[in-house]
Amino acid sequence: MMNNLDDLQKMSKDNMDMAMASFGSVSKGFQAIAAEMADYQKKSFEEGSAAVEKLVSSKSLDKAFEAQADYVKTAYEGFVGEMTKIGEMVTDMSKDAYKPYEGVMGKLAK
Question: What is the pTM of this model?
């Protein structure tokens, strides 16, 4: 009976250690994503402000449309690039969060 209790306690400790390692990975991942989004928002705001200044200082309607088109193009490309980067970060975070469980899943599959 004591042997079973010791096994149960060891298994519980191992499960808690795996959960904490996984939680740590997820926490670090979300912090990195939040920092990346804050940087992107700051950069996006600065680019938007610069575009408005360029639009307001345009001498002709053609230059205003050109400034707007340039901004829309760079904003779209920046957004797509940033979302791709965030997607990769989420994928990496998921892989890191799963790593503590790989050994257990391998044992269960056998």
Answer: 0.78
For residue 1, pLDDT beyond 60:
no
Q: What pLDDT digit, counting tens, does each position of 73-94 carry?
A: 999 999 999 999 999 999 999 9
Give the integer Cα–Cα distance in Å for 9 and 31: 33
Residue type (1 letter), 75: A
- 10 Å Cβ neighbour count for 100? 19
What single string gives the DSSP state of each residue in 25-74?
Answer: HHHHHHHHHHHHHHHHHHHHHHHHHHHHHHHHT-SSHHHHHHHHHHHHHH
Q: Judge whether 24 and 58 are in contact, CB under 8 Å.
A: no
Structure-token match 């257990």, residue found: 104
Half-sphere exposure of 25 (CA within 13 A, CB side): 18
